[in-house]
Design a protein that fits this description.
Belongs to the cytidylyltransferase family. The protein is α/β, with parallel strands linked by helices. It is 39% helix and 15% strand. 41% of the residues are buried.
Length: 444
């Protein structure tokens, strides 16, 4: 028998995150919930659109048990999924273990007036609409679902070992010169993709400029190995916020495939280490904070983090099989939505040479960071140049350092039968949900 809203209301003091007492409902506080298994950019797109509808965004994340009962096994644990949601720039607060069926008492407890979801139907294990209660109360809002990406699609790529998602050239794709379909269709796809990059390169409001975005144009040999020294050329894709006075320029790079808690914790640690460095240089002294607010209208952190993202063929060269599972745009959008970065460079070289680092638009970085482990089997040290330049730093080990694309694919393959069944069930549910959606549209 299904749980009722009354069964699902926590007792005082037992809500998963504060506040423990009900707060006044605000039209500008929005609620979104979901599984968020893999932090793909479709999830981020829903959160961005929801955030643009209000001033605060609360995100409920379902428990592993609730997802298993209603949908099938999760790939990522609740802790890993929560870490991904909390890292999204547009999220105000994450609420773990939110019920699979969205009950009004939960939404109202946290003071959220409206619940936002994509324009697809989500049903529970009984085949009923998960949002039936909030729809009946007139507190449901619909946003566009991001096309071409889903957890189901990504799992399919892993199980089928496909490569047709690869992108040969970032620049050619954005110019409409690469891709499927006619020239007109490619141009339309390119314009849509460019708009999505602009949308994701926004600040925490989802409305104002945020991260800066570049493409690095260099030779294939300079991108793949460590034998070619060339500065290449940096091309601006999106004009965002540039560093402010006193901020240290920090460079990180990677594949960021299946952007997960391992990547997120690495980026968070980079900022944490730079905050410690900030304390050492007096960044947080009260007089310094007052001065920044007086001169620039707000305070800001001591570091500006630039993330370089490698091309698909570079990752495939090193890792083989059908890696990366996400193409460079999918990976780039995942990095772009992360609150721990301030700029992105598409098509960065695998090994950052001295020529590349010296040619960077913001000048030579103050530090180049790398994590303690790597997913790619290396035949040489890609960070010889930053080490020689005295700017290399390494983050410490952490709980999620084993969580990378290889680990996630292994989880899928070890439980292949269960995930294949999940894929079949998802397709069957999709047919039913499409019928419900058609009926709703017809009666609207």
């Amino acid at each position: 028998m299904s749980a009722t809203p009354e069964d699902m209301i926590p007792a005082p003091g037992e809500w998963p995150v504060d506040p423990q007492d009900d707060v006044p409902i605000s039209d500008n506080r929005i609620w979104v919930d979901g599984c968020f298994d893999f932090s793909h950019h479709g999830h981020a797109g829903a959160m961005l659109q929801a955030r643009q509808l209000g001033d605060e965004l609360y995100v409920g994340v379902h428990s592993d048990e609730a997802i298993l009962e209603n949908k099938g096994p999760t790939v990522m644990t609740l802790d890993e999924r929560v870490a991904a949601v909390e890292a999204c720039r547009w999220v105000t607060r994450c609420v773990p273990s939110a019920p699979y069926v969205t009950f009004l008492p939960w939404v109202s407890h946290y003071g959220c007036k409206y619940v936002v979801h994509g324009d697809d139907i989500t049903s529970d294990s009984n085949g009923e609409d998960c949002y039936r209660f909030v729809k009946a109360a007139g507190r449901f809002r619909v946003v566009k679902r991001t096309p071409g990406i889903s957890t189901t699609d990504l799992v399919g790529r892993m199980l089928l070992c496909t490569k047709n998602h690869f992108v040969k050239s970032v620049k050619d794709t954005l110019n409409g010169e690469e891709g499927s379909g006619s020239l007109e269709e490619r141009k339309h796809s390119a314009n849509s993709l460019m708009q999505r990059i602009r949308d994701y390169a926004t600040d925490e409001t989802g409305l104002q400029p945020g991260p800066q975005v570049w493409i690095w144009n260099g030779s294939s040999s300079a991108k793949l190995g460590n034998t070619v020294e060339e500065p290449g050329a940096f091309e601006t894709v999106v004009n965002g916020k540039l560093p402010r006075p006193g901020q240290r320029i920090i460079y990180v790079d990677g594949g960021f495939d299946l952007f997960s808690s391992g990547h997120i914790e690495f980026l968070r640690q980079v900022l944490t280490q730079e905050e410690l460095e900030g304390h050492r240089r007096g960044w947080y002294d009260e007089e310094q904070k007052v001065k920044r607010v007086k001169e620039y209208g707000e305070d800001y952190g001591p570091a500006y983090v630039v993330a370089g993202i490698h091309d698909d063929d570079v990752i495939n060269h090193w890792k083989g099989l059908n890696y990366p599972i996400m193409n460079i745009f999918e990976r780039g959008l995942c990095v772009l939505q992360c609150r721990y970065i301030h700029a992105v460079i598409f098509s960065s070289p695998f090994s950052p040479s001295q020529s590349y680092l010296e040619a960077m638009p913001l000048g030579v970085p103050d530090a180049v960071y790398h994590g303690p482990t790597t997913f790619i089997p290396l035949t040489y040290d890609p960070y010889v140049a930053p080490k020689r330049m005295g700017i290399f730093k390494e983050t410490s080990s952490h709980t999620y350092q084993h969580v990378n694309a290889g680990e996630i694919v292994d989880r899928i393959l070890k439980s292949r039968e269960a995930y294949e069944e999940r894929q079949r069930a998802k397709l069957e549910k999709g047919v039913v949900e499409e019928l419900v959606k058609s009926k709703e549209s017809a009666s609207a």
